[in-house]
Amino acid sequence: MSRDVVIQLLYIVAFALFIYGLMGLTGPRTAVRGNWIAAAGMGVAVVATLLTPGMGNWWLILLGVAIGTAVGVPSAKQVKMTAMPQMVALFNGVGGGAVALIAWVEFRESHGFDGSPAHVAVASLFSAIVGSISFWGSLVAYGKLQEVITGRPVGIGKLQQPLNLVLLLASLACAAVIIGGGDAQLLIIGLLVASAVLGVMVVLPIGGADMPVVISLLNALTGLSAAAMGLALDNTALIVAGMIVGASGTILTNLMAKAMNRSIPAIVAGGFGGGGGGGTTQATGDQTVRRTSASDAAIQMAFANQVIIVPGYGMAVAQAQHAVREMAELLESRGVSVYYAIHPVAGRMPGHMNVLLAEADVPYERLKEMEDINREFARTDVAMVIGANDVTNPAARTDQDSPIYGMPILNVDESRSVIVLKRGMAPGFAGVDNALYFDPKTTMLFGDAKASVAEVTEELKAL
User: Has domain 283-462 been given CATH number 3.30.450.20?
Assistant: First the structure.
């Protein structure tokens, strides 16, 4: 059997593992196995690629693998679940940056794609532009999520979109000159720099409320740039893996945008959502919130027929998922039905709440998506909201002047009683007050979510 046949067979095995692994990511119970299967597929693809004749300097390849392993494995093991969105943004950006650098190397090695087929030059330059946008945009997204830079929209007003258009045209102009025969290094550097600034200027004006969609969109862009680079290099693994990432990221981005009732162009246009702000724990204007205690909350839930827990980023920050599971199990032992209402954009990345609750071994069948759980709130005795702000705000249905108007929300306000666990009255990522907090049937249990849930659990044990 020839080497070429062996390589193609290995690629086929790798693609099968990619697809089978992706199928496993549809549920928490199979997600870990799916990740391992997909990782095995990537390992097979790497071996197939290294078998390609004329692959290059093996020592440099091994050095790169060693450095990547030394940085990636400890980072993945040490990252906290609250920081997972940042890590996803960062690792995604690294992929886009790698593709952009490969395109630059190809430009240098081929002296401006001299003698290369047109599709190779076009695909390489497309990869350079999109990869650079993805890398720098992901760094900004990381900075916003990590709070290194403000989560609020940062832009230049009406000049923002014209500037973005100028940067895009500058990148395309450099690409056109290169395709036309230009081989000056300044052309490819200018292309990468203009694309980099464009990536920064596109993400900076986007507020924290839209970060889950932005992460998904940048992930899709990285996949597309990798697929285009695979086309330029005639590397089947890159093409297939890139298309899988690009297609799945695009579908997810569209689903997330629909969940917020916002178009993707509107999100990219920016200006929505902030990083939250300060507030009072007593009142906003002439509206007063009603406090409750752990003992009162425990009594309400202990004698309820059905309780729905609504997790949000506040649960992630407090690392309260294990305490929540313990409380839920105690309620279920008393005959109370407990479910978890999952909003598609709760948290800071797609599936953030699912990941946290799966880590705490919460039964998957207890996790209910918005479409399934919304009909249950009207017959729910107690809804406990743990740091979920914008996705429970009734203003999305009633206030046409609200920036979140029209966004599908969890119908928490239809419950007979609502208990909100929060540190204070600061608004969510959208930067608007939550009308739910001032509803007469809503009570606030202020403090760290993990500590508050633990107190409620102790009170339940004492009943």
Answer: no
